[in-house]
Amino acid sequence: MTDLTRLSASAVAEKLRAGEVTSVEVTQAYLDRIAAVEPEIHAYLHVSADDALATARDVDARRAAGEELHPLAGVPIAVKDVVVTQGMPSTAGSKILEGWIPPYDATLVERIRAARMPILGKTNMDEFAMGSSTEHSAYGNTHNPWDLDRIPGGSGGGSAAAVAAFAAPLAIGTDTGGSIRQPGAVTGTVGVKPTYGSVSRYGLIALASSLDQAGPVTRTVLDSALLHELIGGHDPRDSTSIPEPLPDVVAAARQGALGDLSGVRVGIVEQLQGEGYQPGVQARFEESVELLKEAGAEVVQVSCPHFEYALAAYYLILPAEASSNLAKFDGMRFGLRVEPEEGPVTAERVMAATRGAGFGDEVKRRIILGTYALSAGYYDAYYGSAQKVRTLIQRDFEAAFEQADVLVSPTAPTTAFKLGEKLDDPLAMYLNDVATIPANLAGVPGISVPNGLSDDNLPVGFQVLAPAKADDRLYRVGAALEAALEARWGGPLLDRAPELG
Ligand code: GLN
């Protein structure tokens, strides 16, 4: 039998439907793969084998009884640890949530369970999703399957590494400034940040509420579309949830795979390429633009002059929102509680001791920055100015989308850097998100598609951005590019990754 873990999620779903395999067999194959590769990768913080197999047995029985099932029923999935899961640890990569077992499911987890997809476990991440390398996790590093000495991207490095190492067919990530797309780029996987408000945030442990968005992490564009369709759509429990239905992302992915992009206008963003981008990253980007042209797309240059200030604005808005969202971790309500070593045990002193011991350096840095940016006397100079820049970036997108249906750029300026390389230099770490952050500030959707290897033999990503609520365009263009590249390579990029386990 072919190795089930090498198949795409849609291929597994097909085999399950046809009765060629059972969900128990697929789930067990993944649990075996996890056991084999986790010592090298450490993508998971928690593996829920019993829970996953129970779901698999249940879905197999239902299928045998002829029950009508969701297309992804029986296909296993991994979930980033920032998403709350009832009865399963949810730490967001932080010591402060160690031991907390949520009493409820996030909306997207409810939908995954309703579709009867076995949940393999929770994936590693930078603490509270702050970072680009997963090195800020309180529970150790995740390693990039392409080179174990390198970072898997962040903050969702665990989800991306699990999918790239064939230790999950599908995963959930969250993207506040690039944490789905950048890990996708550096691990050779597909990552999608949906339109802000199109996937419920209910049950995500909030980082920056006006930027956060959950989305799919997969090996193929079609698999992302199938997962996006499941988790997306209106949720009355999220006040920013978009009431109208999602565009048909699955149909768009299938159409794109046919390879015809005639009538599609593709805009190259002048500010998101060139200087600062590794030569191999830039070269693969230009080659893929040629492939889009060969598929019939019309390519134009667009200018988004305020993107230059996106990173600076983001690193004021994000810490401001985070400092407020993280105030609830006070040693009383969730997880860790540390009492002061000496002196009276007052609420304030327990809170100080708990936060001092429970938060890591990057989280403390951002809470301090955010609190400062919001303080009286500084609010207008920092937070207020950043919000104005945000509006200018939104206008840049509006103008660009008058000239083009989608915008394209490299997903990240470099390939995966070495573990430890940027740990002592927060600004260098932040710079890895220059190309992904503008989409979060404007709420528009984006996809990263595997775009070959740079000169250092490490994966690079191709980013496609679309106007809000036009997520289908990502899938059409993404699937067309994927088809053209795989025809050129003679198979998926991940087939070239080194053997593990
Ligand atoms: N790397 C970015 C940051 O550190 C993005 C994080 C994210 O998308 N969660 O904030």
From TrEMBL:
Quaternary structure and interacting proteins, as annotated: Heterotrimer of A, B and C subunits.
EC numbers on record: 6.3.5.7
PROSITE patterns reported for this sequence: AMIDASES
Keywords: ATP-binding, Ligase, Nucleotide-binding, Protein biosynthesis
SUPFAM superfamilies: Amidase signature (AS) enzymes (SSF75304)
Residues of the active site: K80, S155, S179
Signal sequence interval, chain numbering: none
Entry coiled-coil feature ranges: none
Family to which this protein belongs: Belongs to the amidase family. GatA subfamily.
Tagged with keyword Disulfide bond: no
Protein's recorded name: Glutamyl-tRNA(Gln) amidotransferase subunit A
Gene3D superfamilies: Amidase signature (AS) domain (3.90.1300.10)
Catalytic activity entry: L-glutamyl-tRNA(Gln) + L-glutamine + ATP + H2O = L-glutaminyl-tRNA(Gln) + L-glutamate + ADP + phosphate + H(+)
Stated role: Allows the formation of correctly charged Gln-tRNA(Gln) through the transamidation of misacylated Glu-tRNA(Gln) in organisms which lack glutaminyl-tRNA synthetase. The reaction takes place in the presence of glutamine and ATP through an activated gamma-phospho-Glu-tRNA(Gln).
Highest taxon listed in the record's lineage: Bacteria
Location of the Amidase domain: 25-474
Species name: Isoptericola halotolerans
Transmembrane spans: none
